[in-house]
TrEMBL record:
The lineage of its organism: Eukaryota, Metazoa, Ecdysozoa, Arthropoda, Hexapoda. This is Ig-like domain-containing protein. SUPFAM superfamilies: Immunoglobulin. It comes from Anopheles melas. GO terms for molecular function: cell-cell adhesion mediator activity. One of its GO terms (cellular component) is axon. It comes from the Eukaryota.
Amino acid sequence: MKTVPQDAVHITAILGESVVFNCHVDFPGEHPVPYVLQWEKKVSEKGQEIPIFIWYESYPTHSGEGYEGRVSRVPPNSTFGAASLNLTDIRESDQGWYECKVVFLNRPPKQHKNGTWFHLDVHAPPRFSVTPEDIIYVNLGDSIILNCQADGTPTPEILWYKDANPVDPSSTVGIFNDGTELRISTIRHEDIGDYTCIARNGEGQVSHTARVIIAGGAVIMVKILTKNEPTNLYHTL
């Protein structure tokens, strides 16, 4: 990739929304002349750039693959520069470097410089990629791992709660792998309950609750009356 100028414009957009890259046209001698507008996006660390939008007056515009219907030239009568680009339905894959190029026809390529570099950051609210089962059956003494992973930009923070209270790590309960795993090495009665993982970043938060309960069938209690003793005995079937 060519050297990016220090005055490159940095823009932050929200997933699913739209953004305008504001690029001006500086005509030679301040007299309008025909020009071609081309927007390119860097697509690899080796500097490869692909055109995502090409415009020339009275000719059909060209939109790059994946940008069809999402890129358009900003109307000339707007408050933005004449070479500005509107990008809609923002995707996370849109993040990266963009260059606005204005090429004047019938002019030496280096006679007059136009163009601006932009870097687009795309922010997205958290969304889960891995969550525990809604109900987890265990036996006392078992070991379990509750796995909760989320995507989003910025990278979401993972928090764990048990019965609405923050999980308190102990000798048998721990949180590992950047918060994505809650491990219980030896299940005790006090470990039974609802475990909620919360993924959050500056764009929002999501939560998922897993209920940990003791495994086993129902227990039926039968009351037995004796003739000689007034005591009521209960037997388990």
